[in-house]
Amino acid sequence: MLISIVSGLDESNSNKESIIKKFSILCHLLKSLDYDGIELSLLEPEKIDIMQIREVIDSYQIRIPALGTGSTYIRFGYSLGDNNEVNREKAIDRINKYVDFASEIKSKVIIGLIRGRYKYDSSPKKEKSNIISSLKRCIAFAEDSGVELLFEPINRFEIDSYNTIRESIELIEEIGSENLTLLIDSFHTYLEEDPFFIWDDLKSICNKVGHIHLADSNRRAPGSGHFDFKGFLNIFKKAGYNQFASIETIMKPSFEEVAKSSFEYLKLILN
Hints:
By secondary structure, the protein is an alpha/beta fold. The chain is built from 10 helices and 8 strands.
């Protein structure tokens, strides 16, 4: 199992030189801690010099396993489920830009918060239908680009659709594309899944998982809350999962301290 951690690059408010400098510093830190990768949470990937990014990851021999897209919804308000066709098209266009970037760095693209929340004056059934039709268009583009999309179940307090693993698996099976796999997040799993059955359920769907996010029950670093990471990760380890598990937490007290303590804790329980 490979270990990475999530970070942004503030590309919307920085010039290309500043972006690369920040990225280089992050890679230097993570390589010194023995990380395998850095997952990037981006807003406007088209503003980043891909050639320079590739030079940095090659020099540090570190990978970018996935690209987070949630800020598109948070900052711009564009979502795949929006009844407003213009906003829906903008969300699809944004995903395609992430896919373009991902194709150049051999990364995956996350479909999470960009699904959006249901509007008070719309039909949940219609918005769910919009998500499916929009996702199919994104997948078609991803297939042409050779990029894998990661569908993430997110808890009901943050999003209104596909909150559980089972719902998400059903959607993935309905669409039937090899370029659409599941992203399992320990925090959302803790909030949404039945604690008595989730462990057996996870054993049955490991082959559908393309990426993992790690945060404890308090959304802080693994080991700081109540989530059973040893039991959780050993399920995937025994199933032969060889993809990334990426730390996605509140970065308190600092990114550096979370990166260090999380890696040490995960290596301890995975050995």
